[in-house]
Amino acid sequence: MIRINNVSKTYGSGVKAVDSVTLEIPDGAIFGFLGPNGAGKTTLIKLITGIILPDKGTIEVDGTDILKNPVEAKKKIGFVPDDPNIFLRLKGLEYLNFMADMYDVPKSDRSQDIKVLAERFGMQNALGDQIQSYSHGMRQKIILMGALIHKPKVWILDEPMTGLEPKSSFELKEMMREHADKGNVVFFSTHVLEVAEKVCDMISVINKGKILFTGILDNMKKFAKTDASLEKMFLEMTNA
Ligand SMILES: Nc1ncnc2c1ncn2[C@@H]1O[C@H](COP(=O)(O)OP(=O)(O)O)[C@@H](O)[C@H]1O
Ligand SMILES: [Mg+2]
Prior knowledge:
Distance between the termini: 31 Å
Largest sheet: 6 strands, mixed
CATH superfamily of the largest domain: P-loop containing nucleotide triphosphate hydrolases
CATH class of the largest domain: Alpha Beta
Number of domains: 2
Shape: globular
Radius of gyration: 18 Å
Bound molecules: adenosine-5'-diphosphate, magnesium ion
Order of helices and strands: EEEHEEHEHHHEHEHEEHH
């Protein structure tokens, strides 16, 4: 469960990137966070993951307050940022071990888990190479693997499908479903509407920092009083 209560964030530049957002995402759900570029998606994700602090409001991750108990809350989160260009000088395997150390994953569990993850993403033969030698898609995959190594209760992924080839994108969607079906939460942002339409149990549409709609797609159709595609409704709602 992720519980966001009346959260706002204005940057120093004066841009109100997140404006009085309230959201509750239940266990067992894949939640899609939709909005055009600059809508405030990444900002809200940075607030949930404790990377930046809100001006007001509270955020709970699986019952733990990210402001009051940041370390405990962060341990429950697997976070995939939108930019995978990090730790470029580490080898893939070194990076995964580093993440496992950070999240206190016992050494005995690791090699089997890494093997399973590597097979799903076709990364078996790349783990001995430096991340800087990887393609964009491979960098994304190693970050994904590193975020999942501690089997977090809550997955938070910022535009995770961008740049993934079809097979890995398919695997990721399957993994998201499996994770949610075990009673966990998957929260991901996207501006690719087809992805949201296919995999989400629940969506929110955000624009200019404000949530315009939260619910299931069928209700969005009623809300928008149309039987149009998600794309058409989205464009109308966000005036894009
Ligand atoms: N570090 C920052 N400083 C100032 N303004 C920012 C910063 N990060 C984002 N913004 C602004 O906040 C708004 C929301 O950005 P962002 O959360 O990145 O949107 P999205 O992820 O939906 O594209 C945009 O207007 C953006 O220019
Ligand atoms: Mg973003």
